[in-house]
Amino acid sequence: LMLDDEVHAILTALAIVVAVAASYLALAQPGGYLVLAVLSPEGALGPYPEVVYEGQRLEFKVAILNGYDKPVLVKVEAASSCGGLAEWRPEWERIALVPAKGNVTLDYVGRAGGACERETLYFRLYEFNGDQWVYTGREAYISYKVKTLGGLP
Amino acid sequence: LNAVVAAVILIVSAQVLGGAWEVAVELAGKDPRDPHYARAVELVNEALEAAEEGDEDLALALLDQARLEAGLASPALPAWTVAASGIVLVGFVYYALPRLWALAWLWARRGWLARIRGGRG
Asked: Can you tell me the mean pLDDT for B19-43?
């Protein structure tokens, strides 16, 4: 019937308009995210060392995942809890360009401190905004017990 | 043993940082799947590493190359074009496909199918 055809046409047109709007909203989401993670030297989420010796060489991988539609220029800083985090004195830093919807892995190489029994190594992620480094609020850490080699030459 | 905590902090010069930022700006809105895009990112990261190791001349040369690669990368498709393609596809499936199928069916019935049936009859 003619009326049925008209109703059908209107419903189809409505469905198409809703589909257009929904597709646009789904695809044009302006938001994004950055993820910072500490990985084992093999690039996995663990195992991490639980006990290390003072001065022992430590290796980790630091992964940064960019969920934005644009590349992001980032800086990762590392600081030890034994060195006094209140003033945030970084002891290691690396800068990298992370592609849009991509990731970058950086190699951290450092040594375990002996100033405290338990050391926590903090990593902080900064983003360059064209003028200055801005802290993203993203932080990752790894904690281990430090043993001293007392009595040994 | 004295407490030696970590490696030395290596600071990248403002010139290198500015170059890396320029490439990042150039790459915004480009297609990340483009090989030029990937190469540009790789070159910037190599340049940053070179700068961290103290070789600023190499870093600047790599950044020049990265700028060229970034310029060659193709722009990403805007979201509305993807949505429009989806609508065209839906339209094709909903409107054109049944009609094409009906035409093909009619053609078949009038053509070889009819002849086969006629021959058997």
From this structure: 95
